[in-house]
Amino acid sequence: MSKVLIIGAGGVGGVVTHKCAQHPDIFSNICLASRNEAKCRAIADQLPRAIETAQVDADDVEALVALIESFRPDILIHVALPYQDLTIMAACLRTGVPYLDTANYEHPDEAKFEYKEQWAFQERYRKAGNMATLGCGFDPGMTNIYCAYAQKNLFDEIHTIDILDANGGDHGYPFATNFNPEINIREITANGRYWERGEWKETAPLAEKRTFDFDGIGKKDLYLLYHEELESLSQNIKGLQRIRFWMTFSEKYLTHLRVLENVGMTSIEPISVNGCEVSPLQFLKSVLPDPGSLGPRTHGKTNIGVIVDGVKDGKRRKVHIYNICDHQACYREVQSQAISYTTGVPAVTGAMLMLEGLWRGEGVFNVEQLDPDPFMARIGEMGLPWQVVELDPEQDPLA
Ligand code: NDP
């Protein structure tokens, strides 16, 4: 019987609240807090059991400490924005509350996301005997745990990893993003980057393209992107020689994005409009559909996973580990589309394992540093079943 404090009442916050509410034996008391309390109440109203709500500015450490001291949670799940990672980690450190998030720290003024500042909490969390779990969504999150599972159970040596993120869903809008548009567009318009033999290699944005035939979705074009889990996995998977991240985009999506980029709408840098300072990207975010509203209209499936290539018992082996998730099934269960669902479910599963002591430690951990077995044993019944498919080790599946 534990108390959970959830920060952030967006698409992912809604799923996390629903999923915690489904497990009253573990999460006996739930408080959902966000900048705008009305959004918390709207989520609480969808549920049959009582959820406390609160207003908090998560950029303000003192306000967070006051909220934590009044609710006294056993764990905090942070699903506000990556901009708030450091303030929320600081508040958890001050109050001794275990911390879990789904995205690494992003600098509000520059398109730069990295673990450096969160890893800098390591010694302080360790000395305080507290635990912070970083990046426990789907990617990062589930994908890192698939890699850790492959390392522990399927391979003696891992040589290469390709992370494949496919969304075969259609929401019927000409252009919308599946999660926070500001974070999503900053991620996609940044240069591509991958890691090979100890070095980072840069590509122009969306310059590397491949095709893959996804179970449940069919053939899709994939584009190479830099994604945050590459930073931790390149350090934590022993013997790794190369790791890349690929995401599917439709031609329609890319055409809209190119036009918006060409006219300066994807820049975070503020410009002066009639004497007001306006960030074009933040303005764009405010006119695009709210990702939280896409649930009822999104049909189709996601297929997200990893292709791991290496050696087992002296023989070359290549596997694809993945989950298929259906947008409408998610909507029926928790009133959200699959992108928020696939992020929120691993977050709640990770929080459960921390509360149960199956994930235990003092310090700051990326999820692949924790035992993948209890997580893989639990995540199917939580809503994200997975499968391992053997691939021909001699063939390159990313044609
Ligand atoms: P949304 O934009 O839908 O929701 C973010 C929420 O955070 C909003 O309710 C917002 O409140 C709240 N918020 C923003 N700033 C503050 C603040 N200063 N204080 C308190 N609350 C604040 O985003 P998503 O739900 O789509 O994403 C949530 C997180 O999940 C993000 O960090 C995102 O990067 C991560 N993510 C991770 C994925 C993964 O697989 N690992 C995939 C998808 C998302 P308000 O509405 O009042 O502004």
UniProtKB/TrEMBL annotation:
Cited Pfam families: Sacchrp_dh_C, Sacchrp_dh_NADP
Protein name: Saccharopine dehydrogenase family protein
InterPro entries: NAD(P)-bd_dom_sf, Sacchrp_dh-like_C, Sacchrp_dh_NADP-bd
Sequence ranges assigned to domain Saccharopine dehydrogenase-like C-terminal in this UniProt record: 137-383
Residue stretches making up the Saccharopine dehydrogenase NADP binding domain: 4-132
